[in-house]
Amino acid sequence: MTAAALPAVPALEPFQPQSGPLSGLDLLRLERGGAVFHLRLNRPAKRNSVSDEMLRQIHTVFVNLPADIRALILSGEGEHFSAGLDLSEVSERTVAEGIHHSRAWHACFESIQFGPVPVIAVLHGAVVGGGLELAASAHIRVSEAGTFYALPEGTRGIFVGGGGSVRISRLAGTALMTDMMLTGRVLDANEGLAVSLATYLVPSGQGLAKALELATRIAGNAPLSNYAITQALPRISEMGPSEGLFVESLMSSIAQGDEAAKERVRAFLQKRAAKVERR
Questions:
Q1: Residues 6+ apart with CB under 8 A from 242
Q2: Cβ neighbours, 10 Å, residue 80
């Protein structure tokens, strides 16, 4: 009896515009290639600043993602990833309206971080304010050489409201985030990489190619394993050691009990799967 082959990493299919109900979201460009979905912010004339309507559209995508998608790429059309909150919508809000607005951002970005699939953000140009908060909700961030990061809230008389006080401070540290917000300090691509605002740094114009490489590799993993990694790791990091180790045991058992995981282990033991090598 011939042993079954380990599922191969899926070949990347040509990207095609997304059809169906999601196709009417006019502030986004949505495409898919096989198991990989590409969401592109599409307000280039506004440096992809996030309006209330764009936020609703992003949220709509993540709560209605097709069931067969295995990885998602998030990028920005034009010269910038996102210059953040659309300030033209801020000035006339009451305190109560401001709270509800911030909570809408939280709900949207929760649907990214704790959504059904791993998300890879491609960063270029401005990654500022709410744009950095959006990027921080992704699981992997690929930065191009011309990327720059800023949190100008102090100079605007406002405060982060899209989860940045939690996510960005845990990536870059509270002290650096405080500096950026108080002084308007701008970090370049190398500085952003050094403080984990990005996980990869590539030459200008090569971010999407790198993201496609990573997304294709991720889409070939066992879906339950991907889900366990993106859902459990950030939650375990917030637990005490004893609680975290217990949840780790539960997640480990759940993941390894999946048939897709068992086949991958069998393939390795039967020398049908490659060993880990330096790339």
A1: none
A2: 25
50, β-bridge pairs: 85
Residue 28 sits in the same domain as residue 143: yes
Q: Give phi and psi for 31, each to the nearest 5.
A: -140, 160
pLDDT digits (tens, 9 = 90+) for 5-49: 444 445 556 788 887 788 889 999 999 999 999 999 999 999 999
Does residue 278 lie in a domain region? no
**Cα separation, 37 vs 176, whole angstroms:** 33
Gap between the Cα atoms of 159 and 175, Å rounded: 16
The 10s digit of each residue's pLDDT in 54-74 is 999 999 999 999 999 999 999
Tokens 């691509």 — which residue? 189
Which pTM does this prediction carry? 0.89
Residue 151 in domain: yes
Task: Say what the alpha-carbon torsion angle 116, 122, 126, 129 is, to the nearest 10 degrees.
Answer: 20
Q: How many folded domains does the chain comprise?
A: 2
Active site residues: 133, 153
Segment holding 176, helix H or strand E = helix 174-183
- Contact in structure between 188 and 148 (CB atoms under 8 Å): yes
Which residues 6+ apart lie within 8 Å of 229 measured at CB? 118
Residue 113 exposure: Cα atoms within 13 Å on the Cβ side: 20
Q: What share of the chain is helix, strand, coil (3-state, %, to 5)?
A: 45, 15, 35
Cα of first residue to Cα of last residue in the chain, in angstroms, is: 34
The Cα 250–Cα 105 span in angstroms is 31
User: Residue 241 is part of a domain; what is its CATH number?
Assistant: 1.10.12.10
